[in-house]
Specification:
The chain has 373 residues and is an all-alpha fold. The chain is built from 24 helices and no strands.
């Protein structure tokens, strides 16, 4: 490759008119590759490339234009007029400019991050040079794709507030949850991501919740348990092997979205369900029978079963409740309302008072136990 780029560009420009139309995309790629080989260019080189590429851009297909956008984004002295024309074409070429080009002005990045189209905001979220303000604006956007792109960008400067805003959205988005967990060590703000966490991360989240609630090195009290009638109803529903009905009954006790309760029931490791059992005050003996009879995968794995049972000895009810509330989003008005409306007849209906209010369906002794736990 000759060092005189200008001479080479001039030769390509002279032959451009003689090239058939199907060769014009190839010519545009070759010319752009030649231009991008060098970090700096003379005024003549920039002008000649701008003139030649300008004749070819309008007829270029999207794949070729995306290639050109990617190359020009790496050139500090890329002709601004060409970059502007590429942006005007939209689609993947424009996204590539927003994803890479360091010459994009901060106000444009901020505008796209705050209120721009979702695809462009995703491109901005993937940039390696995001500042905290743009990252904060992106973390506040409601679109799932933007949150995923931002979380997956390890170079994005996400502060504690941004992570705290993104974590609850990971309850129903395993891809987002996994991207957040892969960014850094778990913190208490990551409790909503429990179901997406691996065993090591789950153990860390439980340890953090325990330390925050009772302090390190302190053995927690076991806490009170459900009355016999309620515990028997839960056990009978579980042993019927009707997972949907069992999840509905569990959601009613946890006052949470039934779909999230179903995910706890279907979690293969069993520890999330054990925490839910602790949170509602189910006796350990009843929980053990449920695991051994209704959950064969856990029954056949001594490691999983023993881990689930060990949680009854190490995690108090208030800590289990905190973790499960984070997993399910319980405590939010819409979650409680959903649970109240969802439970009609789960096979073995829960007790309800004449008023239909949840408080009326809970025995007085159990309400006292919940408050004490």
């Amino acid at each position: 490759m000759p060092t005189d780029i200008y001479a080479r560009l001039r030769d390509l420009a002279a032959s451009a008119e003689a090239k058939p139309s199907e060769m014009r995309p190839v010519l545009l790629r070759v010319t752009t590759d030649l231009f991008a080989l060098h970090p700096q260019h003379s005024t003549e080189e920039i002008h000649l490339y701008e003139e030649m590429a300008g004749k070819l851009i309008d007829s270029a297909d999207e794949a070729t234009l995306t290639h050109v956008a990617r190359k020009l984004s790496l050139c500090a002295d890329a002709p601004p007029s060409l970059v502007k024309r590429i942006r005007a074409r939209g689609g993947e070429p424009e996204r590539e400019i927003f994803r890479v080009d360091p010459q994009i002005e901060w106000r444009d990045l901020r505008h796209v991050a705050a209120s721009g189209p979702c695809d462009l905001a995703c491109a901005v979220a993937a940039r390696a040079d995001l500042d905290r303000e743009v990252a904060r604006l992106l973390s506040a956007r409601p679109e799932r794709e933007i949150a995923r792109a931002l979380a997956a960008n390890r170079l994005a400067p996400l502060n504690a507030d941004s992570l705290r805003a993104l974590a609850p959205r990971g309850r129903d988005d395993s891809a987002l949850a996994r991207a957040l967990l892969d960014r850094c060590a778990p913190t208490l703000d990551f409790l909503p991501l429990y179901l997406a966490a691996d065993p090591r991360e789950r153990a860390k989240l439980i340890a953090l919740a325990l330390e925050a609630s009772i302090g390190p090195g302190v053995r927690p009290a076991t806490g009170d348990v459900l009355d016999d009638e309620t515990a028997a109803r839960i056990e009978a529903t579980a042993l019927q092997q009707k997972r949907a009905a069992f999840a509905l009954l569990l959601a009613d006790r946890l006052q949470c979205d039934s779909l999230r309760a179903r995910r706890i029931v279907e979690d293969e490791r069993g520890d999330a369900l054990a925490l839910a059992f602790i949170a509602i005050g189910l006796p350990q003996a009843v929980a053990a029978r449920i695991f051994l009879i209704a959950f064969p995968r856990i029954a056949l794995s001594p490691e999983l079963f023993e881990r689930a049972m060990a949680l009854f000895q190490s995690v108090p009810r208030r800590v289990a409740s905190r973790i499960v509330e984070a997993i399910t989003g319980a405590g939010r008005p819409e979650a409680a309302n959903f649970a109240r409306g969802a439970l009609k007849n789960p096979g073995a209906p829960a007790q309800r008072g004449q008023t239909g209010q949840r408080g009326a369906s809970t025995p007085a002794s159990d309400r006292r136990n919940n408050g004490a736990a």
